[in-house]
Amino acid sequence: MRPITRRVRSLQRYRQVVGILARHGFGSALEYLSVHRRLALSRDELQVAPEPLESPAQHLRLALEELGPTFVKLGQILSTRSDLLPEPFIEELRKLQDSVPPEPWSVMCPLIERELGRSLGEVFAYVDPQPIGSASLAQVYAAGLRDGTPVVLKIQRPNIREVVELDLEILHDLASLAQRTQLGELYDPETIAEDFAFTLLNELDYRREVRNAEQFRRNFASEPEVYIPTFYTEYCTERLLVMERLQGIKVDDVEALRAAGHDTREIALRASRLIIKEVLEDGFFHADPHPGNYLILGDGRIGVLDFGMVGVLNDEDRISLTRLYIAIVRQDTHNILSVFARMGAFSRYTDRTKLARAVERVISKYRGRTLKESRFTEFWNDLTELCRHYHVRLPSNLWLVGKTLAMLEGIGRQLDPDYDLFEVSKPFVRQLSKTAWLPVLSAQDIAEQVDTWRYVLREMPIMLMQWLQSVERGKVPVEAQIGASPETLDRVDAMVTRLSLSILVAAFIVGLALLLPATRDIPYATPLTILGFIGATVLGVWLLISILRKRH
Questions:
Q1: Is 311 helix (H, G, I), strand (E, B) or coil?
Q2: pLDDT digit string, tens, across residues 496-525
Q3: Residues contacting 401, CB < 8 A, separation 6+
Q4: CATH of domain 99-158+205-245
């Protein structure tokens, strides 16, 4: 009965979603996706006239707010994707408020006790029944442990996970319909929906938030200026968080900071180093860096809150980001496009010639300016407009980086009118650029490369034999017929032999190059490696001469 009940609820929610969207003027879009066929809706139900005073962007924001927490979160994430939506929509979605009337204490108290597995009095000296925060997914309460330590409790609203999962099913369904249209070819809505579902479901698992906080604590273990609050893991569950309560001033409250005797210029520098370290050095960064999540404590340290949404950059992402940064600073159009190509950002709709001219126009706008006169946010907005117009798809985690750095620059300029994001980030970029242009291989990397080449060399004779047998039978693996006379087979055999030897020579040279750094301290290893290079070189020269002789 449960699947049947869920299906009925899904259909009811589906009709509710479609009705709200139609009421706000999106009936034509839904009809374009043929939603009316799936739900047996009439065209009249879809073509509901919108209110006359609001713009389409305002209607979208109002519709998302009316649809509830899942769609509010979707709008907040879309507000960071200038590559997908025009600026009026981005500005409107940034106004989305994730606050709703609180559930009564009589409903939330049993939920907390159920997650704790005991009564509140056994853990807490007191809990204030009036929430200090009420969002669409959770409510936050002030409390104190039995030893007097002030803490906060974050508890999910009742049945919120079931609501979110139901809405995610509907979003995935709509994305699948859109994927079959021209819209799907341009923007890949299924991937966007999958990324969003992954992010939101992770945010609903508070144990992951605890693990994120512990990772930040390890990353900043040598940074005394950063403070990560304590999480009381013995009380934390998937739906309940118990963490130390921090008292401080929001990082953008300039007047309060100055009144408390803090140096706002120094705070701007420290906050910048914190975030740039996360992005460029750690590859693990706070992806929701609004001012409320950064508090300046009484002793001047920066207290960080809310670890539910994080961004992750692998080594290749960070190197690509560094190369892009260097290309931007040098105002090098060719290298900017080269970095895009390395990241696989071009789609079949991207006109590279027109894109190159457009990038050159943007670059010319900044020529003659010093870095201090430039604004990262302004350039990022220009770049994202180009990406949207020319269908350039940067990885979603890089859009989070852009949002993070743009917000950082805004806070920095509030704290210090002379703030320069490019100058602050120089030391980190300089360090990472060494890896970007001259990658350093660890012993593990070398071992993995050697093992890969060992596998290739071991399997290659078998694969070549299979291929030659296919040729002998008059059919290559791609099912293309050829005339296999003895003379032709002899020529193919000679060609494959030379190809095999070429690959072996290349493998010897690459393998020796990878082994050389790891064998410096081993007696006689360096001379033997050099002899190996000489042998591989002689073999390569002999192979080249034999090929040239065949040609003549």
A1: strand
A2: 666 666 776 676 666 666 666 655 556 556
A3: 279, 285, 311, 313, 321
A4: 3.30.200.20
Look up the pTM and report it. 0.69
12, 190, 405, 373: CA torsion to nearest 10 = -110
149 has pLDDT over 90: yes
Which of these, 483, 96, 416, lies nearest to 257 by C-alpha position?
A: 416
Largest pairwise CA distance in the chain:
94
Choose, from 83, 167, 252, 288, the residue flagged as catalytic.
288
Contacts of 252 (CB under 8 A, 6+ apart): 291, 411, 414, 415
Give the percent of the chain with pLDDT over 70: 72
Tokens at 135, concatenated? 């969002």
Q: Is 252 a catalytic residue?
A: no
Any residues with CB less than 8 A from the CB of 470 and at least 6 apart, and which?
476, 477
Q: What are the CA-CA distances from residue 533 to residues 466, 500, 536 (Å)?
A: 31, 18, 5
The distance of Cα 69 from the centroid of its chain, to the nearest Å, equals 21
Chain centroid offset of residue 25 CA: 32
Length of the chain: 552
Place of tokens 């579902």: 197
- Strand runs labelled E in 264-398: 284-286, 294-296, 302-304, 310-312
CB count within 10 Å of CB 123 equals: 21
Distance of alpha carbon 503 from alpha carbon 548, whole angstroms? 17
Angle of helix 315-329 versus helix 421-437 axis, rounded to 10: 120
